[in-house]
């Protein structure tokens, strides 16, 4: 179980920490220093490097979460309400990421490649909002994970 918890926590830290850095640090700096062509190009390349890590986190979180849920806690009926909340929030985050991956992210790439900066800005705005939602869900999930059993 210690391996599952360790991998689970590391995957969550990478995903949620990456979103926090992108939202709270990189976004305001890039927005204040870069013009749209450079800013959109930067973000597209940042996502190219970050999203494979998110894919790995999704796989690890799902595998280790289900491993602990069914192998350690005895399934949904035996687990606490906080575990149910973590599972629902995690699945919602994964669904939002899948939407980003398959919809606005490829459109952002096409807009950057064709230098269609207004279209790229629209896609980046959609990605930004969805990552903001995922960041809130991720921070709430971390809070539930570490404090939920005490509620």
TrEMBL record:
Residues in coiled coil: none
Pfam family name, one: CopD
Transmembrane regions: 7-30, 50-73, 85-106, 126-147
Domain Copper resistance protein D per the UniProt entry, residue ranges: 45-145
Protein name: Uncharacterized membrane protein
Assigned GO CC terms: membrane
InterPro entries reported for this sequence: Cu-R_CopD_dom
UniProt entry keywords in alphabetical sequence: Membrane, Transmembrane, Transmembrane helix
